[in-house]
## 1
Amino acid sequence: MKNYDIVIIGGGPAGLAAAVSARQSGIDSILILERDKELGGILNQCIHNGFGLHTFKEELTGPEYAQRFIVQAKELDIEYRLNTMVLEVGADKVVTAMNREDGLFLIQAKAVILAMGCRERPRGALNIPGYRPAGIYSAGTAQRLVNMDGYMPGREVVILGSGDIGLIMARRMTLEGAKVKVVAELMPYSGGLKRNIVQCLDDYGIPLKLSHTVVDIKGKERVEGVTLAQVDEKNKPIPGTEEYYACDTLLLSVGLIPENEISRGMGVVMNPVTSGPRVNESLETNLEGVFACGNVLHVHDLVDFVSEEAAAAGRNAAAYVKSGKDGASDAKTPVVAAKNAVDKDTREEMAQQDTGAGSEQEIELVATGGVRYTVPCTIRTSHMEDELKVRFRVGSVYQNCFVSVYFDDERVIHRKKMVFAPAEMEEVKLTKEQILRYPELRRITFRIEE
Amino acid sequence: METRNLTCINCPMGCALTIEMENGEVTSVSGNTCPRGDAYGRKEVTNPTRIVTSTVRVKDGEADMVSVKTAQDIPKGKIFDCVRALKGVEVQAPIHIGDVIISNVAGTGVDIVATRNVER
Ligand SMILES: Cc1cc2nc3c(=O)[nH]c(=O)nc-3n(C[C@H](O)[C@H](O)[C@H](O)COP(=O)(O)OP(=O)(O)OC[C@H]3O[C@@H](n4cnc5c(N)ncnc54)[C@H](O)[C@@H]3O)c2cc1C
Ligand code: SF4
């Protein structure tokens, strides 16, 4: 069995950024396992622009953004294997993978980084009545067909769901000569980013019908048309609001779910809200030395944040390996959370706190009052970098409201924002200094307030 | 006086802009979080432009398609001319990021360039 310090599952933007930062944090033995025939993940099919403004200060397309990280990974000589599917990871961090050349093989890792991304919600979960004729695709499948295979799935299109992929595909298919008749969204707000509504629908006069759903699909062999109806507050179709649209294609863009079969199999505890692992400040799961980042942790709309989050996971995994806690080396060295982010004093303090490892109480992060979840879920101050970004999403649209953060019962952050929307990930920065001022702190609560 | 409400699309923040105009001249932009929003607002009401992305076929490559984009943004009204110019275009592998696929597309003065590498 081969041994690596860090094995990364998934070679998308998350896996690549984690690998690069782990190497920069001084780990030589890193392996990326990717089931696809190329690195870059979902970005390879996202040919539209809008990636990387935060990271590179320029607007790149998906493949260009991916290429930047692929080049970095190659320059740093990071080992990767393509066409290699990870089947299973044991709690002992033995990775079982498979490819054509090697067949089934095992790798012992000291630390594992989960970076498997997400997949589209299956259409079975949609509960649309009627037959299952040809011409129904998930938006991501259509994206792959058009952009990678050069195949147009249809000419007259209705899209159910206003997730970003659906919006992007509305524009893409319009430019390719299709007629996109309407986008229907069950919720009273869009599931996609504002700029995608503007640039993909408004620019082409494609109507977006909020609080609408598909109530009937016509056609036995191939889709001939769909009937939309408005829904009430309970998402029940309102009789008399039905409208028929002739079309040969129905695209479903009803959301993404993190791909966590492997994580579940190894006993990682999940957050039911995100369908991703529960992680601490180091993006470490309940299993020591197992980290998660990118869309497998929670669905991101912005790849820049994926890269940033993954870089933190890479640094933390490197620190974990160096600490020798995995049992492979002597467990004497203290954990250094991020070598460039801690000064000497905090390092000593961390070393001290670390001697009582396990005894340190975690601070719990609580999402309530409109905040659906937070990443991370817990904080150990001893392992915290100087600054921690807590990311979260809201449950519905809030205007002119505040995001408030309470340290136990005291409100310490109260920040106003014009719009909070479920489609857009929010973040709040907490500093270590700020938290250390409250030595008894047990609970940090996040909520939206008027 | 005329007021237009737009969403800044320069970054995913998507700030809600309010643009005040008088006789076709922008008098004020508000709601932006950074200067790019101001510039975008002014431009969008006077001379809107877009980056166009698409794909073209590749001969003898490891992939069948190569993704492309306009190297700069082009007038919004030229989007369909640009897409039409790309119809039926086929390029020979290898192709690298930045390679010019069509120069001066649809008379815009802007080139179409490749956005991924396709080796032979
Ligand atoms: C359609 C779409 C449009 C988007 N548009 C934008 C945009 O305009 N701007 C922006 O900034 N962001 C955008 N995003 C978001 C951004 O692209 C994603 O958040 C980002 O790609 C997530 O990176 P990831 O590495 O977590 O996941 P992925 O890119 O999905 O990568 C995961 C990788 O893991 C591999 N994998 C999974 N399971 C296994 C296994 N068992 N064994 C081996 N390998 C495995 C997969 O093959 C894949 O390559 C978009 C996303 C989508 C889906
Ligand atoms: S104004 Fe600035 S921050 Fe706001 S959306 Fe535009 S570019 Fe982004």
## 2
Amino acid sequence: MTISFGNPDRPNSYIGKTVPRPNAPRLVQGRGKYVDDIVLPRMAHVVFVRSPHAHAQIGAIDTAEASGVKGVLRIFTGAEIAAVCTPWVAVLAHLKGLKSPPQHAVAVDRTCWVGEPVAAVVATSRAAAEEAAALVEVDYTPLPAVTDMMTALDADTPVLHPEMGDNLAFRRLHEEGDVEAAFARAHKVVEAHFKTARHTGVTLEPRSILVDWNPAEGQMTAWHATQAPHMMQTVFAKHLDLPEGRVRVICDDVGGSYGIKVHVYPDEVATAAIAKIMARPVKFVADRLESFTTDIHARDHEIGARLAVDADGKILAFDIDDWTAIGAYSVYPRTSAIEGNQVVNLCGGPYDFANYRAQTSVVFQNKTPTCQYRAVGHPIAVAVTEGLVDMAAAAIGMDPVEIRRRNLYADDAYPVTSPAKMRFEGLSHHASLNKLLELMNYDALRAEQAALREKGIHRGIGIASFIELTNPSPFMYGIGGARISAQDGCTVRMDPDGSIVALSGVTEQGQGTEAMLAQIVAEGVGVPPARVRVITGDTQVTPYGGGTWASRGAGIGGEAALQSALALKASILEVAGAMLQSPADALDIRDGQVVDSATGEARMPLEELGRIVYFRGDTLPKGLPRELVQTRHFITSDYPFAFTNGVQASYLEVDTGTGEVKLLKHWCVEDCGRIINPQLVDEQIRGGIVQGLGGALYEEIHYDADGQLLNGSMADYLVPMAAEMPDMIVGHVETPTMESALGAKGAGEAGTAGAPAAVMNAINDALRPMGAQVTAMPFTPERILRAMGQIED
Amino acid sequence: MKALAGGYARARDVAHAVDLLAKADGMGRVLAGGQSLIAAMNMRLSTGDMLVDISRIDALRGVTVDGESLRIGALTRHADIGADPLVARHAPLLAQAVQHIAHAAIRNRGTIGGSLAHADPAAEFPACVLALGGTIHLQGPEGARTVAAEDFFIDIFETAIAEGEILTAITLPLAEAGEQHLLIETARRSGDYALAGLCLVKRAAGYRLSAFSVGPRPVLAVAAMERLDAGDVAGAVAALRAEIDPPGDTQASAAYRRHLAGVLLTRALHDLTGETA
Ligand SMILES: Cc1cc2nc3c(=O)[nH]c(=O)nc-3n(C[C@H](O)[C@H](O)[C@H](O)COP(=O)(O)OP(=O)(O)OC[C@H]3O[C@@H](n4cnc5c(N)ncnc54)[C@H](O)[C@@H]3O)c2cc1C
């Protein structure tokens, strides 16, 4: 069965329409159920004593005074947790050479960053546990801390993990063509040093987990704010020595994730270990300071980069030297080498060129571990690529649009393999750029910019083309040996009243997964979306799946939902055919009714079919298949990843007196293949842009030279706020992937991927007449004035 | 984190509050709008406080004209100051300030007395009161006394309020005919504390200029005021930059703040008088 997506008037045409989100009223009315809302009998609370040192030997831990606090049940040291919980090592076989030492849930002997758990206090209330935690005396002997990325490999820098030999966690060099020769014959070479600041995801709901261990059943249940319940099931089972089938992970409502909640956190595993030891439910909810010191950080990169062009502006070669510092451990199980690896994979991504060299060097340091965060590596690669392209345009006196036109892959060039060895099935760079220019009225905007410049008003226009990696296959993690599922499944069933229940392995963290699934299933079966109930986030209930990461929910989970819904429809029609004495293919289901497919004439409501199947099965022919439940799984197989593309533009004004940037407007045209729900896609793009703008202008985790975190609060770590956000115009080009019937690729990260580059280029466009340029994010007022030479120290 | 208060009592009136503070054995802490205190308690930056809640003492709330001065009760909320017609007429600087203080939810609870007593060097109201030459009214076990704004702010979060005293009101001179007020600041995001800010008041007798977020307390920029009175804008900018001692932090360096203060002064003068440097 197929769907004629080209016909918007087809029956049950929910795919491609904005339909109401089934979970929105619940959340808006405060009826959501987050981990912190769950209270179980005999539930205890755990609070972690966290290291105040970036690097220190742990000596004696004195818990005498803390134990005396009213309500304290037990205090655990790292060694006591380690007795029931094995350490983990976060490496993947396909990331050759990646190394990382074993990491414990609670530090044993040595602590490696400010915030690492050193002891755990369990009490009857969070307040009592906090009070006691403050009284736990740990005898620390400070060790020298490695905090500077660029000197981490120097001979006189101490080696953080002596058994690892050096501070290099991972290095990958990729070379294609003859880079040196290309630079030698270039008409112009531009070169710059870029920095993207260390930042973090700042989810509205902090990391939260409640774990119960029932020794009578031999079953562990974890209510967990996670994006990947099945992955966590494996992790708990493996490290707490339980059969995987005896671990159940449930995610009710999750308040935002952005990649932050797809990793294994020591304190969360320790909570599970403690629940097992104490045989009672234990809850851990991070507070905001803990979030800043222990949620994964990301984007801490410095990149030296060069670009060679010929006299016509054709790109001859890119040469990228990326550095990133990941903290003291590679994060389990996805590892902390992926972000740097992505920079190598993605630089130059939109462009048709021949010579490419890119290296990433990933080093250890005594800071919070970094790992995958929304648009992993993309904002870095796009900023470097697009920054260089604009510099090259300026160097040869060409308009930034024109240089892109001359270099973007032609829209009929596909399939094609990039110099970074990324395979593109079908992209639409030129169509997207043309649409963007139309939406922004590019020529008029340039004229306005020029006119205002005469009056001393400095506005800039910045453009950034990008590619985005979505719908990953096992090439991302599975081939490296991680039990992280790239396939996903969906079970769809019809109940006696004709209503539909869909159980999916992809998860909902607020992005609208359940709305997307509901409308796909509604169209696939032929019922209104309101008759579909979607259940996600329960490893004992849903089909096995990967959850939410790398923009896979709609493309992978959506296709599984579509195929299972179509299969259920076929099952229903087979039964209906027997009941109505009609060939099944002469029937259809529309709006919850079995109809005659040629005339649309109603033949039987689904509730009548349900009544017969479930209560009067005796009236149906013996041997008629009557399973009104179908499961399908989907995995991509033709391409390792479904790449999408897009282009963004930023229009802004730089205050050359104060250095402030005022964002005036932002545009994005992207191609995520088939759009299932236009509003959800647009809001994903907008939210993603906001997160990208945060990286460009505001977000930066500061550490001092000793590895102390300096800004662990919402007053000091600046996230983008509504008042500063510009109007955003979002447009689309649709190039469906041929890998699936649905044709959907991911849309969740495109906004974040391109926004920082667009803003950087716009600022530099505004500053160029003054001979100034910024390349270190975030572009604070001070950095802008310093680039202009305005500040005297 | 969970706050750890030592105790809580709600005061009926000022005398009761002073009495409660006296009995608190040095741990007494006035609770007004709670917009700074509760945040500090929730981060356990302050623990064991015996909270004396003055927020229901009606006598401490409201704006009146009292002879030659404008009297603002300590518990008058930021939002009320922003909407008050007497403030708009006699001390428009304060109404301007409200637009820059935090967000609506905080302005609905935060009080001017709390803001002055808290004495955050980046806060707007302390600098306003300094620029306007206001007077702070205190009441304690020994009775009532007044302190001139110029003597009130001592250091970061430190004022002339003595142990056991409560700030009850501030009084300000009524704006004279033709008096001009301007508050200008630069913050990273709307509602954030300023990276630097200025209050500029132009009276018949001359300029008054205070700066905030440029040192451990709001500064009355006396040398710059003198240059302004002399009509020397460039000299005023240089003098201002010389008489402030801004901090450097994760948002901006001292050098940036010093530079910014000068830029803001040039702009403030331009906005107020059309003068350019
Ligand atoms: C997110 C956020 C942003 C903010 N941004 C700004 C800003 O941009 N600009 C700004 O100026 N402020 C800002 N504030 C602070 C806000 O203005 C506070 O309301 C104000 O600083 C304190 O007033 P309060 O009534 O809430 O005092 P409380 O928090 O109740 O008390 C603060 C301190 O003053 C003492 N105190 C209070 N009243 C009295 C009194 N009558 N007598 C003696 N002592 C007293 C208390 O004991 C305590 O030590 C912000 C606050 C928040 C939470």
## 3
Amino acid sequence: MAIDVLAEILTNRALSADYNVVEFAAPDLARLAEPGQFVMVKTSLGNDPLLRRPFSIFEILRDATGQPRGVSILNKRVGVGTNLIYSTKPGDRLNVLGPLGQPWPRQTADEHWMVAGGVGLAPFVTLAETLAKTNARMRLFYGGRSASDLYYASLFETLGATLVLTTEDGSQGEKGRVTAPLERALSARGTTNVTLYTCGPTPMMRAVATLGAAHHCQTFVSLEQVMGCGMGGCYSCVVQVNDHATPHFVRSCIEGPVFDASRIIWDALVH
Amino acid sequence: MARDLSVQIGSLSLKNPIIAASGCFGYGLEYAGSLDIGALGGVASKGLFLNAREGHAPPRIVETPSGMLNAIGLQGIGVHRYISEKLPELRRLGVTNIVNVCGTTIDEYCEVSRALTDAEGVHAIELNISCPNIKEGGIQFGCIQESTYAVVSAVRKATTLPLIPKLTPNVTDVASFARQCEDAGADGVSLVNTFLAMAIDIETRRPKLTNGMGGLSGPAIRPIAVRMVYECAQAVKIPIIGMGGITCAEDVIEFIIAGAAAVQVGTANFVDPFVWNKLIDGLTSYMERHDIARITDLTNTMTKGK
Ligand SMILES: Cc1cc2nc3c(=O)[nH]c(=O)nc-3n(C[C@H](O)[C@H](O)[C@H](O)COP(=O)(O)O)c2cc1C
């Protein structure tokens, strides 16, 4: 079930010139939300831009007694809608529709490794919180262009995750791609049963999926396709999967955004 | 006083004039968890061929000023799976099902229509002769008057269900196509489908849609759609289902005054899947304000001259 809330913006925290986190007051929506689900945000009150924008639910906000009071989104400015989100002010109201899509599936692996690139960190806070409740062992492999692209790493540390940070310019953590330390860790893990979860740029997710398959690890991806409605109405956000005799398109808004990575036909994925 | 929102289109009875537009509401069931789809005037299904279709490679949509282009390419499960997998649940939910029928040949249109006529729970056929996004079939039947007449009269013989051809706006004189449909035995016509359009990425000089061109929908097209509904209303006696860019009750009322008996809402459902009650409430309060007892009394009532 999805609901639409005209939600008040509680805070808008700029993380950099491009990234920000917006908190929405939306207790009813937050109560329904599961890790990995998303919301569709109407970025204007009028007809331009017309369509909503999909955002992973970044955090489920709670009051002092632990009751859900809203959700936040992690936004990166890339176009008209995300620019509007970047410049919102506390007290503004925007329509937030959700929660939508399939959550991260519950897994019973020995260890849970999250692999995030840039704004692809968004669906992992809620996952880490859920895993932390069961004292599951987790790691976050988190890569960005430079140190200023890596946010919230300490939050994951607080939740008990081991951090592996990489930057392309070497300004923080290991220099290079996040898949390099991931590959070493997979090779070194011995008989430990690991589930991989990934979200970020398509080439990164594809590389993680390939590594996961090579190392026989269950791998889940959270895809971020262009979406029209988020509810299965328009058939625009399709991704090609291979679980029948012939490849076929499925709607990432209702069958995803989380998919078993082995289903995805990466060559057909746009980005 | 209670306001009568019911509408009759041939033997099709609608409890209210607000229908979910084809291709914009999945098969309806996608929304059943969040709203009462049985309360809508009707649900026009995603376009169905005899067999399943994959549709076009993404990107399939692009946003444009007050609108969007789509080139979905009629991805769908085919009529038989619709009947076996979707209809039973739609029936249980009390949905008024208007099935959008596609074909690449007249025979296919007839065969799909026959299958739906034999199935339980189909209330009407909306004959899609207007999809701009596929090469063969669809729009070729909607752009040549003789072909329109041929396909509508052939399907007329194949089904006893209310038959509502859906017209394309990509013609010079849409009313002449409405007349062909009326002459061929249609119970009504619906219009408009999307306007063939294009958007280009100026950095890469490539079209923004993989398919190259797509159909424009949303508020951007509304004034043209209203004009076309008006023209058809002057030309035919059969009821008209109007659509194109409706987002609010005022838009619904405009189409009805222009000549529509009922309306469909497509793109606005993407923006607000809970738009339906707002439309019904707005329509009802307008009827109260203007002392209109039956919504049918508002159809085709534009004041002309001074
Ligand atoms: C994504 C999308 C898919 C559509 N698919 C169909 C379809 O399968 N069959 C059809 O007859 N019309 C289809 N249409 C056209 C709509 O039913 C409607 O005629 C058009 O969008 C104008 O109405 P609107 O401005 O309210 O969206 C589609 C429109 C959109 C935006």
## 4
Amino acid sequence: MVENRPFLTVLTHAALIIGVLFLCFPVWMALVASTHSADALSSSPIPMWFGDQGWQNYSLLISRGLPEAGGVPLGRMMLNSAIMALGITFGKIAISIISAYAVVYFKFPFRMVFFWMIFITLMLPVEVRILPTFDVVTKMGLLNSYAGLIVPLIASATATLLFRQFFLTIPDELVEAARIDRAGPLRFFWDILLPLSRTNIAALFIILFIFGWNQYLWPLLVTTDEGLYTIVMGIQRMVNSGESLPVWHLIMGTAVLAMIPPVLVVIAMQKLFVKGLVESEK
Amino acid sequence: MANLSIRSLGKTYPGGVSAVRDVDIKIQDGEFIVLVGPSGCGKSTILRMIAGLETITTGDLDIDGRRVNDLEPGDRDIAMVFQNYALYPHMTVRANMEYGLKNEGLPKDEIAERIAEASRTLRLSDYLDRKPRQLSGGQRQRVAMGRAIVRKPKVFLFDEPLSNLDAKLRTQLRAELKALHARLNGTFIYVTHDQVEAMSLADRIVIMSEGKIEQIGTPMDLYLRPATRFVAEFIGTPAMNFIDATVGSDGHSLQIGEQMIAADAPIHAPAGTLVSVGVRPEHLHRGQDHAMHVKLKTGFVEQLGADTIVHGEASTNGTASPLGVRLQGVHMPEPGSELQLGAALSDLHFFDTASGQRLNT
Ligand SMILES: Nc1ncnc2c1ncn2[C@@H]1O[C@H](COP(=O)(O)OP(=O)(O)OP(=O)(O)O)[C@@H](O)[C@H]1O
Ligand SMILES: [Mg+2]
């Protein structure tokens, strides 16, 4: 499908540009709204260009938390979100790469049974098993703790499956060469499998970090302590802050700030990711 | 270095595929052994059992008098070169060669010395810091050989290492491999399905068919005195011709069509036994004055310059069987014309048609 007709070029570009505009519009609105005062946002028409309140809004947000969000400082919420997202990401990657390693490279009784058990949990996301999971977490005394936020979200059938499929593409001869080179199971994992999985890990890191960062329902359930609130919860609380009108300019500012860490992760990992793709081994 | 003793080795894969049966080979220190045979005959299976990558179902394998059946590949003191190179893609050439030595725990300067030496031998010194994907196929295969050499193993194993390369490179690397063998004086076991490769490399060839050894011998043994019809057909291009015959009533002669040939030695088969008389295309000559003659009805002609290969049908003996002849120099026979050909008695091979066993001594 490599055609070279000017009309088609114009058409495809137009379609792409419209798509991009459509996707970017909400982000644009958030950026714009965060630079206006509350008054400007509550009267129509809503401003479409930057206002002059940006500096005040952001310094207010960063310096002293919002009474509307229960007075939890923004930094604290960001930190909680970061801890949770990183915990989930590292946990998921570690657990899934190890279980995929076991399933692919070791022959043990009921191997396929285990594999299918993992596979079946794919059909049971957190939301479906939320009550029993909550029950377990309560009984383990993990409410209001980072462990309670992170551990139940770590098991990941998707990532296990992805690593399994990747391991299956690694030629047997490579494994055999390593055996002849006296690499035991741990050495093989560390020296060969892990470096070869770099690209996959980077891609997963992006996806899982965003997944963890955006968690809403689960943190809402297991935390009652304000010191453990995450940024996504914070935004939600600002919107539903009871009697007073929502402070849209500050909410949008928070949303913009909350976007920064995922964007940073994407940028950082993308380099590795693209490098891996370009360098893809034959 | 090392000698190997393989005694009634057998392999049955899970699922019941009996890939190798009753294989006995004694390999001397420093020998270059080539396992050859058609696809699926079990060559790789034998090699992989020697390497320890497949378990041995029956029989014994000794390296230097020590039974190694149950040792891990890393503990058998072998090195292996694979068809698809199997280099570690994320490591540099140097790291690829170092890896096994590091795992063995050799001191740093010893490792560096061995790598310097191997990369000199294999002309890899300029590529040590490259990744495998930045190398050509031939260079990659040399790295794989380097990885084997630096380990100074007792036995080198090769599984069709040249099959992924183009014809010219294959010839070049074949010569390098032979030189390497002379230089290292190691025990080499080499698998290929290419009989030319086998002939040019081997001290002794082990020729296999359907999991069993057909014959073990030097290339010239196999060429001059193939033990079975299978070996006779497999070794040599174009393949040997076969003409049907029966053992004459005196047990000393063969009846080919109307022609009687008196053999120079007794034929170990009763009168009336069906015999396939084999004669190589290069042993057929034009003219009348030969012990055996045959007429060739010309079909397809290959002009190769140095030789002319004429394919056609042997038409005089009542039975029409395909026949090929390699004539020296340039010939231009008319398609459909008849060539009068013959062969010397000493160039004829007699095989029992039923069992395929050689009948003349
Ligand atoms: N892992 C396996 N499981 C079951 N059967 C196998 C396995 N590996 C090989 N075989 C069978 O064993 C027989 C011998 O295989 P092997 O790989 O040794 O052949 P080969 O002589 O090396 O052939 P090629 O020249 O094609 O490489 C074949 O019939 C093959 O199908
Ligand atoms: Mg093979």
